[in-house]
Specification:
By secondary structure, the chain is mainly alpha-helical. The chain has a domain at about 25-50. It is built from one helix and no strands. The protein has one helix spanning about 1-50.
């Protein structure tokens, strides 16, 4: 009789754990979808703001980088310009 009680108790605990795992999976899926929607909206709004803001002038002392500041961002260099010229 005690063995059957243990089996039934284990079955109830397993079903409760399965139900909880299902709820957590749905919650994780909703959080994941919300995260990607938020990233999409953030990127879209950032691009809209960058289009609305005019480029700041280089002579502006607030936006001009210091002499010891970070190097300018790398620009595109085509590989064909890096080929060695034969003498």
């Amino acid at each position: 009789m005690v063995l059957w009680a243990c089996v039934v108790l284990a079955l109830v605990v397993a079903l409760a754990a399965l139900a909880r795992a299902g709820r957590l999976a749905r919650r994780l899926d909703a959080l994941n979808q919300s995260y990607w929607e938020l990233r999409y909206d953030y990127t879209r709004l950032r691009s809209r703001v960058s289009r609305l803001e005019p480029e700041q002038a280089d002579d502006d002392p607030v936006s001009a980088p210091d002499a010891g500041g970070a190097p300018p961002p790398a620009s595109f260099v085509p590989l064909s310009s890096l080929k060695r010229k034969e003498p």
